[in-house]
């Protein structure tokens, strides 16, 4: 019989979140320490994200994200946050 191997989704998403956190490092080492199924899952999710973000369907979201700077923070009085509030009613 075959053993069913499931990815550790909590670990995979934690790793993916750390990739976008500028205060963390050592991502390649962490990837090398992960189980093969978790590595494959992380790479598939990153590939999917890359495809989605380059899709013309996401042009409006890319424009919106380009208005936001992490150094500015989500200050409510800034012109950028006002642009976000008016452009993205779902936020």
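-> sequence recovered:
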């Amino acid at each position: 019989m075959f053993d069913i191997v499931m990815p550790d989704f909590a670990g995979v998403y934690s790793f993916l979140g750390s990739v976008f956190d500028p205060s963390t490092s050592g991502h390649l080492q962490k990837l090398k320490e992960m189980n093969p199924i978790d590595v494959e899952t992380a790479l598939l999710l990153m590939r999917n994200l890359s495809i989605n973000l380059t899709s013309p369907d996401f042009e409006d979201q890319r424009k919106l994200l380009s208005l936001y700077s992490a150094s500015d923070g989500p200050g409510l009085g800034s012109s950028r946050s006002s642009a976000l509030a008016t452009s993205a009613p779902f936020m």
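The two ends are 48 Å apart (CA to CA).
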